[in-house]
Amino acid sequence: MISRVIGFEKGFPLSEGNHFETYEVMLPKLNKFDIVVKNLAVSINPVDTKLRQSGKGTQQPHVLGYDSVGIITQLGDKVAHLQVGDRVLFAGTTKRFGSYSENQVIDSRLVASLPNELATDEAAAMPLTFITAYEMLFEKMGLIPEESQNQGTILIINGAGGVGSVATQLAKWAGLKVITTASRKETKDWSEKMGADHVIDHHKDLTKQLKKIGFTQLPYILILHSTDRYFTEMSELLEPFGHLGSIVAANKDLDLTILKNKSGSFDWEYMFAKTDYDYKVASQGAILKLLVRLLQEKKIHSTLTKIIPGFSPEVFYQAHQLVEENNMIGKLVVHY
Q1: What residue numbers bound the domain in which 10 lies?
Q2: What is the pLDDT of residues 1-30, one digit of tens each?
Q3: DSSP, res 29
Q4: Nearest residue to 202 (alpha-carbon basis) of 161, 151, 243
Q5: Nearest-angstrom CA–CA distance, 88 and 239
Q6: Is the pLDDT reported for residue 84 higher than 80?
Q7: What's the pTM?
Q8: Cα–Cα dist 86/83, whole Å
Q9: Neighbouring residues of 312: CB distance < 8 A, sequence distance ≥ 6
């Protein structure tokens, strides 16, 4: 099967101009767990812009896109829980062509069915950030993935971004108090809308601000921006046996010995680790089933804030520009 895709030959900065192009590619033969999906909408994540700059990812042409909602058009031999015509959501893998494509082959174990009452664009904004937040909170930090079954407080650095917005909601659902950081009025307002109990300014001394609201140590801290900048201060704020986590690569070695004498843990989270290493792949489909249930129950709300219609190199160039400006609140979705 041939599909139109939007991709590029080698990594490029946006300052060089638009190097996205339209290609026609042959989709791979389905294995027993695969499905073919006709994509309806895809969200743009910071990882897309990083992979575009580096030129890493799939084989050439590089076809990005790691959040999608689409309609199933074909099934592999061993796919029993889904049917042609089902609408599904997924985050995909860096090992295959992504969802900047009209049609895509995806492992059925990575998807969840999307009920009719949930909007396509709102759902497409969520998979990657929800999986990232879920894996960090419940698989790395050891919290219980059930409503109101946890205690304590979490500090989330960069609460208004895609992952921060979801992590705030999930942590509140799980029973934690949530402190986030934001600096602009609109990001503070958004973070409060997501459920933050306190919002402090990351342009000011965080330790002093936390002390003013009654916190000198915290059991859970999540860094979602500039790990190098925040690691030392957050390590000092972490309480004994606490969890300090990050999703942002460090540009220099981190001194983990700071955490040793308080038995503190440092947790990395990278949602593609499971598909990169074929490790518990089906768990991500199960996580998305929880997302669907929480959306249906209105316990979690979509972080969609902007939609761009169209399927062209110009549309994806514009979308990457908006994400790289670093002023995004919530998530941007391209609707095909």
Answers
A1: 2-126+273-335
A2: 999 999 999 999 999 999 999 999 999 999
A3: P
A4: 161
A5: 41
A6: yes
A7: 0.96
A8: 6
A9: 6, 22
